[in-house]
Write a structure and sequence with these properties.
About 30% of the residues lie in helices and about 25% in strands. With about 300 residues, it is an alpha/beta fold. It binds S-adenosyl-L-homocysteine (SAH).
């Protein structure tokens, strides 16, 4: 994809081909880093003929890549909240030969109901919220890929897949950083920071224990522990030493999984049992299911109720 066709004035064509983020509007919009875009496209697993929704058009670069993957630009629907950017993206896409990509100005978290259902949805801005519209506008085996921020953790990508009427998936262990999502599902700005120092203190205690017990934690295991720790902190557990002890106990009882082995399942907030390890949000809870808890059937498993109704 000729990335130099998507850069703002003042950036040289040579700079366009570095594996770097290019700012478009300070703090609000960027042209994403090519290697992260590539990683996201792999995880999205889109194939020719699929209808795709993108949230956050910005330059249009990723929309053009999605058009290549889908094999037909008119299958790509991209929503941008900033009118000036949407206008520029339309021009960029037309100049690159992808003028048939559909670009709409609006809050992408509301999806694109008239064009739904989508086989794949990809969000390119970060929030601590999960919009129900994006899940309900997926088709029966649809995949949603979105950056999801958890206080105290690096930005992680969340990949959810519909299995009938349930949404299940995992976090991907590559720390990412995106501009904040705006609009109705931007989430509570304070939530980003809330408790992050407690998570970090608890993790410091865990690292100390791992060092004392000569346990070598891989990055993927450390991220898994961070996830368990952050969920406990969100559930109001304190002080950090006790959180660290409980996180460690649950992590070991759960089979010492790496991040990949923790299954995430989505359930309506009202149906999430109070003892379930979960990130509770406006409409949904993201339940964390550790492998051993899952297999033993002794709790930890989230309710099997439908979420898409
Ligand atoms: N996909 C882009 C990078 C996106 S940067 C690329 O290929 O380079 C994130 C973009 O999301 C910004 O342009 C920002 O304006 C937009 N955005 C933020 N919140 C949004 C929302 N709720 N709906 C649609 N777009 C949003």
């Amino acid at each position: 994809m000729p990335r130099h066709l998507f850069i703002p004035p003042g950036v040289t064509p040579e700079e366009a081909y570095r594996d770097e983020v290019i700012p478009l509007l300070p703090g609000l919009a960027t042209l994403s880093q090519p290697s992260i875009v590539a990683l996201m496209l792999e995880e999205l697993d889109a194939r020719p003929g699929m209808k795709i929704l993108e949230i956050g058009t910005a330059s249009g670069y990723n929309a053009a890549l999605l058009a290549e993957v889908a094999g037909d630009p008119s299958l790509v629907h991209s929503v941008e909240i900033e009118p000036r950017l949407a206008e520029q993206a339309r021009r960029n896409l037309a100049a690159a030969g992808y003028g048939k990509v559909k670009v709409k100005v609006g809050d992408g978290c509301l999806g694109w109901p008239e064009a739904a259902p989508f086989a794949r949805t990809m969000v390119t801005a970060e929030a601590a919220e999960l919009s129900p519209h994006l899940l309900t506008q997926l088709d029966a085996k649809g995949i949603l890929l979105t950056p999801f921020s958890i206080p105290g953790l690096p930005g992680l990508l969340l990949r959810l897949e519909l299995k009938g009427s349930r949404a299940v998936g995992r976090f991907i262990g590559i720390p990412v950083s995106f501009v904040p999502l705006r609009g109705e599902y931007a989430g509570d700005g304070r939530r980003r920071e809330a408790g992050s120092h407690l998570v970090q203190q608890a993790m410091a205690a865990t690292e100390e224990r791992a060092w004392e017990e000569q346990i070598d934690l891989t990055l993927e295991c450390r991220l898994a522990l961070c996830l368990v720790t952050a969920a406990l902190v969100e559930q109001g557990k304190a002080p950090p030493r006790q959180v660290a002890d409980e996180a460690w106990r649950r992590y070991v009882a759960g089979g010492k999984p790496d991040l990949n082995a923790i299954r995430v399942s989505v359930c309506p907030l009202a149906e999430c049992p109070s003892r379930q390890l979960a990130f509770r949000r406006r409409d949904y809870a993201l339940c964390l299911n550790l492998p051993v808890e899952r297999n033993s059937g002794e709790g930890g498993e989230s309710p099997q109720r439908e979420v898409m109704s």
